[in-house]
Amino acid sequence: MTCSTARALALTTTLLAAPAALANDNVMVVFDGSNSMWGQIDGTAKIEIARDVIGNLLGDWADDRSVGLMAYGHRSRGDCTDIEVIVEPGAAQRSEILDRIKSITPTGKTPLTDAVEQAATQLSYTDRPATVVLISDGLESCERDPCELARALEKGGVGFTAHVVGFGLGADEDTGSLACIAEETGGQYIQASNADELGAALSAVATAVATPEPEPEPQAPQVTVDAPDTAVAGSPTTITWDPTVSQADYIAVTPAGAPETELGQYTRIGKNTEVTFATPGEPGAYEARYYSTETKTVLGTDPIEITPAQVTLQAADTVQTGSPVTVSWSPTINPRDYIAIVPAGADAGTLANYRAINKHESFDLTAPADPGLYEIRYILNVDSRTVASRPLEVADPQVTLQTPETALTGAEIPVSWSGTVNAKDYITIVPMGAEEGAYTNYFPVRDDSSGRLLATADPGMHEIRYIQREGNKTLASATIELLAPEVTISGPATAVTGAQVPVSWTGTVNSKDYITIAPVGADAGTYGSYQPVRDDDTVTLTMPSDTGMYELRYVLREGPRVLATAPIEVAAPEVTVSGPETVATGAQFTVSWTGTVNPKDYVTIVPVGAEPNTYGSYQPVRDDTETRLVAPSDPGMYELRYLLREGPKVMATAMIEVTEPQVTVSGPETVSTGAQFSVSWTGTVNAQDYVTIVPVGAEPATFGSYQQVRDKSEVNLTAPSDPGMYELRYLLREGSKVMATAMIEVTEPQVTISGPDSAATGASVTVQWTGTVNPQDYVVVVPAGAPENEYGNYQVVRDASQVALTMPADPGMYELRYLLREGPKVLATAMIELTPPDVTITGPEQIRAGDDIAVDWTGTVATNDYINLVPMGAADDTFGIYFTVREATSGSLKAPAETGLYEIRYVLREGTRVLARHTVEVLAEDAALNTGAALTAPDSAAPGSTIDVSWQVDSASADQRITLARGNQAIFTWLQAVKITDGATTAQIDLPNEPGVYELRFLDVAGQEVLARKVITVE
Questions:
Q1: Cα–Cα distance between 685 and 584 in angstroms, integer?
Q2: To which H or E segment does residue 4 belong?
Q3: Mean pLDDT of all residues in the chain?
Q4: pLDDT score at 172
C-alpha cells in the first residue's frame, strides 16, 4: 500500500466517523476554474487530474438527489465576479455535470467565498437543508473572509453543510481559511497533493454526502409550544411558545410523526412571541413544532387536529352570459381564500373568474361569456383546495337594439336597447360584416336603456352592435346606412393677412365639427385658424400671415373629413408704424401706427435686422393707435415693428436710435452698518428704475437694500450689516444696467447693551442700550453662544433706550443682545444668569365640590403667571380652572364637581413651567366633614364681628379646641382657639378684620384628629 493511498483511506475513515449530511439535502459542487489549475503534478495539469477523478464524487447517490454544478474563474481574467451556475440543481444530473466539467478552461481569479455564498443561496439554504462541495487548488484571491461567511451560513441556514477539498496547495500556503469553511458548518476539510489522494478525497466526500444522518436519541422538548387542540383546515391559527431560543428559529405545522427535517407550513419567529398562519388544507393529525436552526432539531411540539372546512355557498341557479352573479358564503375560513366560477369538472386550483374574499361576506362575479354548465367554488388559499361548490347554468341573454335605418356620416345616432346584461357592456358601430370583437366609436351601456352614438366618417352599410364586455361577444345588432351629408360654406372672396373674417355655413352635422382655413389642396387633416361649429352658423377666423390662395373648410370631426369648401385669397395689408428718432436707454416713449389688422397684433422694439419672431419691450395694439414702450438698456440702432400675431410676421418698421442717458447718484461718504441714510440722484430715466447699495465691483444685477426711483429724486436706504467699501448705484430696470455710481464706506457702529447680572426664569427684566443704529433693530435674550440669527424673546428698539424683556423659562447662562435687523448681526452683548425662582403655594388639604378654594402664594415671578387647578398627574401644560396672579398674593378657585385628588399649581407663563404645587382632595358636595362632632355657626359674617359657635361631640378627651383658621392654613395651626372645658357646648369667636374664606374646626389635639369643620366667609 502506497503512502498516499494510506493517507486517503485514513481521511475516508475520519469523514465516515463525522456527522453526515441529511440524506435529502440539495447539493451544489463548486469547481475551481482559476488559472492556477494549469499547474502540474507529476507532469499532469491539475485540471486534467480533477476531470479524471471527479466521477468518484458523483456516485449512485446523485441519481435521486438534486445536484448542480457551479464554477468560478473559468471565463475571464482578473474578474472577481466570474461565477456561473453551469448545471442547475436537479435529479439524475451526473452525466451532464461530468460532460460540462470537461469543457471548463482555467482562466482567472479565485473568488471562492462569493461562489460558496451564491451556491448556498441557489440551494435556498435558509429554507431547507443544503450541502456545498468546494474543490479548490488555491486560496481566496478577491479580498473576502471565507471563515466569516461560513459562520453566517451556519447561523442562518437550515441544516447547511460545506465540505472542502484542497488540491495541490503549496507547502507554504496557510490553508486555515479553507479548513474553517468546513469546520464552521460541520463538514470536512481534506487536503490532497496528487491524483490518488484527490480520488480518495472525492470518494470520501461522496460517502459523507450519501450517508443518511442516524436518528437522534429522543430528547425532552426544551420549548413549550401552545396550539389549539383543533383548527379548521386553511384557517388562520395562532401558536405561542416559551421561551424563544433564537429569532432565526421556526414555528411549523407538520403531519404527526413526520421526520424532523420536514417543515410543512412554517414561518420564522423573528421578534414575535406568537405567530398566526394558515393551517394545512388536508384534515388529519398534525403537530405544531418549534424548530431550531442552530441544532437542526425540534425543541418543542403540541398536537393539533385539523378538521375539514365546512362552507355553504348561496347563488342563483341560472344566469345570463356576462351578467353579474351575486355570491354569498358562510363561514369565511380565511380572508385570503377565493370565490371562483369555473367550468363544471375543472381541475382543482382552476380560478378563471374569481375574487379574493378579504372582508366580504358576499360580492358579484361576472358570468362567463360562453353558455354552459359551471361551478361556483370556495377555494382555500393555502393549497388551492375546493371546500365547497354549487352548480351554475349560464344561458344566452335576450338583447334587442332599436336604431334608425339611415344616418349622416359623423352625426350622433340615437340608439335604444333592452335586456342589459352588464353595465360594462357597450354599444359600437362597425362596417357591415366586421369581425367579432371589432369596434370603432362606442359608449358603455351603464344603467341606461338609450344613448347617442357618433357615426363614422365613411358612408355605406354599417352595423350597430351590443357587445358583451365579458368575451367581447356580440349579443344583438342592427343594420344602418350612413349617408354623406349636404353642407355648404361661404365667406369673403378676399381678406388681408392676419385679419379676422366672418365665415358662415349650412347643414351642420355635429356640433363638434369645425370651420378652418387651409392652403388650397391641403390634406383633409390640415388646419390653420379654426373654430368648432357648436350650435352656430357663423364664426370668425383669423387669416394666415402669408399671402396666397386658401380654402375655407367645413371639417367633419369624425375622420376628419372635408364636407364643404369655399376659396379665399389672402392679400397683404397696408400698415405703418412710427416713433421718435432717438430715445434714452431704459426710457419710456410713444409709438403710433395705422392700418390695424387684428387687435391681438403687437408693436415692439428690436435690434435692426433681428429675426421676425424677436421681440423686446412690446404691447398689443388692441383698438388703439398708439402706446408706450420701454427702450432697451444698450445704446444703438433699433427698429420699431408692427408684428402680425398670426405668424408672427413683420408688417411695418421704423428706425430709432437708443442713446446713453446722463444720470448722477450721490450720498454720504460714510454710514454705520445697518443705519438708514439718504440717497439722491439726477436724470431719472424710468420711474421703475432703482437705486441700491452693493459691494464695490459687484455684478450689475446685484441688489442690496434698494428703492424704486418713481417720481422722486431722493430716498432712504439701509446700510449693509458688514463694514467695508460699497457703491451707491442708479440701476436701469431695463436690462439691470448701471447708469451711475458713488462710493460710500460702511463703518462699525458703537453700541452697548446692559441689564442685571442675574434674574429669575420667566421674570420681566429691564434692558438698556446706547448707540441705536436703526429703529427696527432688536434687543433679544438667547442662550449663551447661540447663532447670530437665533431669536428668543425680543423687542424692537424703536426710539427708546430701554425695554422690559421676559426671560426664558429654563435656568442657565444667557446673553442679552443688540441685534442689527440688517443681516441680522449682533452688535453688542451682555451676560445674564437665569436662576429658578423661589415660589410657594398653599391651600386646604380637603374641600367639598363647588366650594371656594382659598389659595395663597409667595415669590410672584411675572404678573401674567397663573394659578391653575388640574387633576393630579395631569401634564404640566394642562389648564383647568385658573386665574392670573397679577399683583395679588392670594385668590380663590371654585372646586370642580368631580371628586378626587387635584393639584393647585403656580404656572410660569413663559414656557408654561410649573414652579410650585399643592395637593387638594375634592370631596362630594354633601360629604360629611364631621367625624365624631358637629359644628353650628353662621355661613357668613361681617369683618371684626363676634359670632356664636355651638357643637356636639361623641366623646371627650384631654384637649379639645374650637379654632378659627384661614381656609388654606395647616390643620393644627390657627388664628384663634377656644379650649373646651367642663362639658361646654357653646363659645364666642371674634372674626378677623380682613375679608376672606375662613374655617372653624373642632380639633382633638390630644388624639391629633379633626372631628368637625365649618367654612365661614368674612365679607
A1: 7
A2: helix 3-17
A3: 87
A4: 60
Which tops the pLDDT comparison, 903 or 673?
Answer: 903
HEC readout, 261-278: CCCCEEEECCCCCEEEEE
Nearest-CA neighbor of 908 among 857, 969, 832? 857
pTM, rounded to two decimals? 0.35
Mutual angle of helices 146-156 and 112-122, in 10-degree steps: 10
Phi-psi label, residue 349: left if phi above 0, alpha if psi -120 to 50, beta otherwise: left
- Here the contacts of 544-547 (C-beta below 8 Å, separation 24 or greater) are 544/497, 544/498, 544/517, 544/570, 544/646, 544/647, 545/497, 545/498, 545/644, 545/646, 545/647, 545/648, 545/649, 546/497, 546/570, 546/647, 546/649, 547/497, 547/571, 547/572
Residue type (1 letter), 41: I
Cell numbers at 345, concatenated? 369538472
Can you list the alpha helix ranges (DSSP code H) found in 969-1011? none
Q: What is the pLDDT of residues 301-336, one digit of tens each?
A: 999 999 999 999 999 999 888 888 999 999 999 999
> What are 716-734's pLDDT values in tens digits?
998 888 888 999 999 988 7
Best CA proximity match to 91, nearest among 115, 111, 65 = 65
Residues in CB range of 344: below 8 A, 6 or more apart: 372, 373, 374, 375, 391
- Alpha carbon distance 34, 44 (integer Å): 16
Question: Please, what is the Cα angle at 549 between 544 and 555, to 5 degrees?
Answer: 70
- State the Cα–Cα distance between residues 422 and 347, nearest whole angstrom: 28
630, with CB counted inside 10 A (0-12, 13-18, 19+), is buried
- Looking at residue 173, its pLDDT comes to 64
- Residue 575 CA to residue 649 CA, distance in Å, equals 12
Q: pLDDT class for 926, splitting at 50, 70, 90?
A: low
Supply the pLDDT for residue 677.
92
With a CB cutoff of 8 Å and minimum separation 6, the contacts of 570 are 494, 495, 496, 497, 543, 544, 546, 547, 548, 549, 550
What is d(CA 352, CA 348) in angstroms, rounded to the nearest whole number?
12
Which residues 6+ apart lie within 8 Å of 973 measured at CB?
965
What's residue 16's pLDDT? 32
DSSP codes, 700-711: TT--SSEEE-TT
Asked if the model's pLDDT at residue 23 lies above 80, the reply is: no
pLDDT digits (tens, 9 = 90+) for 109-121: 989 899 999 999 9
68 DSSP β-pair partners: 28
Question: Of 176, 100, 165, which Cα lies nearest the Cα of 135?
Answer: 165
What integer pLDDT is reported at residue 538 of this predicted model? 95
- Please count the other Cβ atoms lying within 10 Å of the Cβ belonging to residue 731: 26
DSSP tag of 60: G
Beta bridge partners of 1010: 1003
Question: 842-880, pLDDT tens digit by residue?
Answer: 988 888 888 888 899 998 888 889 999 999 888 988 999
User: CA-to-CA distance for 352 and 344, rounded, in angstroms?
Assistant: 12
